[in-house]
Amino acid sequence: MGPVRHPLPVACAGAVLAGGQGRRIGGEKAAVVVGGRTLLDRAVETVGRVARPVAVVARPETALPPPPAPVADSFGTDAGRFLSAGAPEVWLEPADAPRHPLTGVVYALEQAEGRAVLVCAVDLPLLDPATLRVILIAAALAPDAPAVVPRTGRHLQVLCALYRPEALDGLRGFDPDARAIDVVEALGPAIVPFDDDTPFTNVNRPEDVTAAERLLKVSRR
């Protein structure tokens, strides 16, 4: 028997969802500093390791920190219109769009020119490229799935998932009062189980910053 050949990760664009108000943390989430770097900087770098091009999706009123430097990796430096002056392009959602977690997902798909999009919420400082590669390999094994979504325990991580253009029909016009998980489940996504939920740890409150920094120190040992 020959060696086992694993599928290559699906090629896709990346979108960092940075439109959160951050009321519980005292300001715009994208600018929150964890371990000496903003959440936006960390998210763009992490997504940029596995997806290219990468864009930042935000509300028109969102205050974003200075853009992070471009990521140097195997994707090369030509990222087309998604990069502007060496930084990720910023896609501003329509001002009248509903304030809902899935609004950014829909807008990213609409702007991605027919590409699959790996979306990532900006508030996941412990997310790593290896976790994202697992999602993209799972997407290669489920080519007909409109979305490929991680699951930790009973929770679907719908804001750190791959969405294909086929998901748009089911996402457009969603009920603004509906739970994001319910809307995505109705798409019939492929589910990727994860035993460890650490990479999907959210930073929502000041104490979450302290906890995340502690975990980052542990991971570096």
TrEMBL record:
Transmembrane regions: none
Alphabetical list of InterPro entries matching this protein: MobA-like_NTP_Trfase (IPR025877), Molybde_CF_guanTrfase (IPR013482), Nucleotide-diphossugar_trans (IPR029044)
Sequence ranges assigned to domain MobA-like NTP transferase in this UniProt record: 14-187
Keyword Metal-binding in record: yes
Catalytic activity, EC: 2.7.7.77
Protein name: Molybdenum cofactor guanylyltransferase
Record's keyword terms, sorted: Cytoplasm, GTP-binding, Magnesium, Metal-binding, Molybdenum cofactor biosynthesis, Nucleotide-binding, Nucleotidyltransferase, Transferase
Gene Ontology process terms (BP): Mo-molybdopterin cofactor biosynthetic process
Residues annotated as signal peptide: none
Gene3D superfamilies: Spore Coat Polysaccharide Biosynthesis Protein SpsA, Chain A
EC main group: transferase
MF-aspect GO terms: GTP binding; metal ion binding; molybdenum cofactor guanylyltransferase activity
